[in-house]
Each structure stands twice: as structure tokens, then as C-alpha cells.
Amino acid sequence: MTERLLWSPLRLGPVTVRNRVVFSAHLTNYAVEGKPSPQHAAYYAERAAGGAGLIITEEHSTHPTDWPYEKLIHGFNRDVIPGYRSITEAVHE
After folding, report:
1. CA 53 to chain centre
2. What Å distances lie between residue 37 and 1, 3, 5, CA to CA?
3. How far apart are CA 20 and CA 10, in angstroms?
4. pTM of the full predicted structure?
């Protein structure tokens, strides 16, 4: 792939990302009481500002019995929605 293609937009279904640079998921340990924290929003916003066209957020638990790490987002709980909205708003600024 040429550098020109790397920085060109890419359509993924109904979404067009600004380039082909992908920031892949990894655990940050920033969750507070099972919810995304302001530190998450700042962390992912920095990656977007640095040029990532697609950001895949980290692992989260999908069931109350699935809690392998203390600072993991509890995806099964609706209380995580405002935190994810904050992350989304931060990376789209």
C-alpha cells in the first residue's frame, strides 16, 4: 500500500473513515466503578488528534459474572452509555 492510500478515506459499510490508520483495542485500566472515565475520553481523543482514522475501544465485560480485571468497563450495565457518549464526542471534535 502506498502512503497516498494510507491517508485516503475508506468506506466501511455506511461509515467513511478519514484514513486507513487503525488504532486497535487494548485494555487501558481507566474504568472507574465499571464505567468509562473522563481519562478514557482524553486518551482516545489524543489518538484521534494524532491521526487515527478508526479507533476500536477496549475490551469490556458482557455479563455480571464476566469480570476478569478490576478496572474493566461493565458493558452489560446501561450506566456505561454516558461515558461512551463522552468518548465519541471527544474523538469527533
Report:
1. 12
2. 36, 35, 34
3. 6
4. 0.89
What single letter denotes the amino acid at residue 22? V
Q: What angle do CA 9, 11, 17 make, to 5 degrees?
A: 50
Q: Tens place of pLDDT for every residue, the chain, 93 residues?
A: 578 999 999 999 999 999 999 999 999 999 999 999 999 999 999 999 999 999 999 999 999 998 888 899 999 999 999 999 999 999 999
Q: How many CB atoms lie within 10 A of CB 21?
A: 16
Quick check: 20 and 8 in contact, CB under 8 A? yes
CA distance 38 to 34: 13
